[in-house]
Amino acid sequence: MTIISLFFFYNSNSLESVNDIAVLTLDTPIDLDRICATPICLDPSFEIKKDMKCTTAGWGLTNENARTGSQLMMAVSMPTFDSENCLSLFPDIFMSDPKSQICAGEPDVGGVDSCGGDSGSPLFCLDETSGRWVAVGVVNYGEGCARAGFAGVYSDVRKYFPWILSRMADRGSPSNP
């Protein structure tokens, strides 16, 4: 499977950690009949409640001292929390647009978070009404790996829903990386 186009959000700024989102077009459709491939929902109206347990999964580092990512996909569930609490953890860098980011983790005790190499991995929550998993975020940044006093910050994909749909419909020229 090869990436044939890559679309970056038009106002992406990695220095400010905002609008850090992209859409890939693959040369081969994903076979959703395979056991290991299932679609995840994108629902712009899905509401993340305070302390809702959501999950992230990826092949990144398993601790700050690791030199390579995990050979197995790792997953961790953690609660989400409000922008004001997250702002207190990252006063110098968090949120030029509070509606574009989600915080998740256990800053009081640490131990649950994404880590280096997980950037771009999903944050997804169970919609208890429908029983479906909903993609709500993409790993953006944090401080170390699961450190107490910090949390993971995720780009909120719900904010980008119209742009994602337009990229899926328009398979034209990709962005320049």
Automatic annotation (TrEMBL):
Q: Which GO terms describe its biological process?
A: proteolysis
Keyword tags: Disulfide bond
Which SUPFAM superfamilies does the record associate with it? Trypsin-like serine proteases
Could you confirm whether the keyword Magnesium appears in this record?
no
Q: Which CDD domains is this protein grouped with?
A: Tryp_SPc (cd00190)
Against Pfam families, the record matches this protein to: Trypsin (PF00089)
Is Membrane one of the keywords UniProt gives this record?
no
What Gene Ontology molecular function terms does this protein carry? serine-type endopeptidase activity
Where, by residue number, does the polypeptide cross the bilayer? Answer: none
All copies of domain Peptidase S1, residue ranges: 10-169
InterPro entries according to UniProt: Peptidase_S1_PA (IPR009003), Peptidase_S1_PA_chymotrypsin (IPR043504), Trypsin_dom (IPR001254), TRYPSIN_SER (IPR033116)
Q: Extract the SMART domains matched here.
A: Tryp_SPc (SM00020)
Q: What family does the entry list?
A: Belongs to the peptidase S1 family. CLIP subfamily.
PANTHER family in UniProt = ACROSIN-RELATED (PTHR24252), HYALIN (PTHR24252:SF7)
This chain's protein is named Peptidase S1 domain-containing protein
Species in which this protein is naturally found: Elysia crispata (lettuce slug)
